[in-house]
UniProtKB/TrEMBL annotation, chains A, B:
UniProt protein name: Recombination protein RecR
InterPro entries in the cross-refs: DNA_Rcmb_RecR (IPR000093), Rcmb_RecR (IPR023627), Rcmb_RecR_Znf (IPR015967), TOPRIM_dom (IPR006171), TOPRIM_RecR (IPR034137)
Protein family: Belongs to the RecR family.
Keyword field: DNA damage, DNA recombination, DNA repair, Metal-binding, Zinc, Zinc-finger
Gene behind this protein: recR
Pfam families hit by this protein: RecR_C, RecR_HhH, RecR_ZnF, Toprim_4
Role noted for this protein: May play a role in DNA repair. It seems to be involved in an RecBC-independent recombinational process of DNA repair. It may act with RecF and RecO.
Highest classification ranks of the organism: Bacteria, Pseudomonadati, Bacteroidota, Bacteroidia, Bacteroidales
Cited NCBIfam families: recR
Residue span(s) of domain Toprim: 84-179
GO molecular function: DNA binding; zinc ion binding
Coiled coil: none
Zn finger spans (C4-type): 61-76
């Protein structure tokens, strides 16, 4: 469905703004805009202002580069968390995912991307130097790399491993294996092979 | 996926705003917000301001109740269009859909909804009186009802028919039949029956 004619230039502008978002086509954008048009004015104003504030007021934690409302994020500032282990992740979404598992109680370091020659992302574009600096300062015992098991993720992990190998720090990575709920039959052979080599004691 | 902890209250606020939209869950909302966070500030400001302007500056055409940037919309103001036929539609989206077919050159009347006792929408909630008034003023020859062939659509069409039957005006409705591209085999019998009764001369 293409739109040859919009009854209003402002409507068209709003539809265009929404359709710039990833995964939102013109038809969905129109539906969203017409929905907003029927909402109370203060609600729509709040929506608009939240977006504007988002860019102006959000901070990135000076230590781990996670999103934060303050200079140092709540996780870094939490003395109840294990300050000796840093989980290295690609982006903020990964921090949220890992926090949701409630299985990690250390600190984070957000790289802000992943090494990708295809997309022109070099190590210098990422927060790698600041990670090395955090490790060099001493108290860190373990660097836990929670990067995707993709070519880029593995490249980044290997680069970090080389960079940190001089430091007295244990380097770990997330376990790779058959995803829970997946059938063995459909697992690729590299994953299956890895899950055999890294077999773990049975627990229930 | 639920989010127990957000690294930032502002991030959470933005995600909540997006997830209020129809069809947007928390996970999609987070993806959209993180996308916006990586866009240039002026672009995000423009997005926010467009939403705010949407509610403040958009008009509804005084004649047909379509969305408009001016008091009378471009369609009503266009002397090149047939001023003797009014297409009655449920909402603004239908105007856009019909305009996109380029098969209609008359005027519109947007009811702003459809009679639905289930949802508590009564005839008085819709722009029906203003339609009767437009017809009573004279120049209209035909009222073309382009309402969905649903129970609510048919109820609304029947109500309009009764309201307008006293006026000297031809009342028509969109053709119902087998949708182009659909297989006869899968058509419901009411639609199939209707498409037999209303068979049309073959043309190619």
């Amino acid at each position: 469905m293409s739109f040859q004619s919009f009854p209003s230039a402002l409507l068209e502008a709003a539809v265009n703004e929404f359709s710039k978002l990833p995964g939102i086509g013109k038809k969905t954008a129109l539906r969203l805009v017409l929905y907003l048009l029927h909402q109370p004015t203060p609600d729509v104003e709040k929506f608009g202002n939240t977006l504007i504030r988002l860019k102006h007021e959000i901070h990135y934690c000076k230590r781990c580069h996670n999103i934060s409302d303050t200079e140092i994020c709540d996780i870094c500032a939490d003395s109840g968390r294990d300050q000796s282990i840093i989980c290295v992740v690609e982006n903020i979404k990964d921090v949220i995912s890992i926090e949701n598992t409630q299985q990690f109680n250390g600190l984070y370091h957000v790289l802000g991307g992943i090494i990708s020659p295809m997309e022109g992302i070099a190590p210098s574009d990422l927060e790698i130097d600041s990670l090395v600096e955090r490790v060099a300062q001493g108290d860190i015992q373990e660097i836990f790399m929670a990067l995707s098991p993709t070519m880029e993720g593995d490249t980044t992990a290997y680069y970090l491993y080389r960079k940190l190998s001089a430091c007295q720090v244990k380097i770990t990575t997330i376990a790779r294996g058959i995803a829970i709920g997946n059938e063995l039959e459909y697992a690729d052979e590299i994953t299956l092979g890895r899950s055999i080599v890294n077999r773990t004691p049975f627990s229930y």
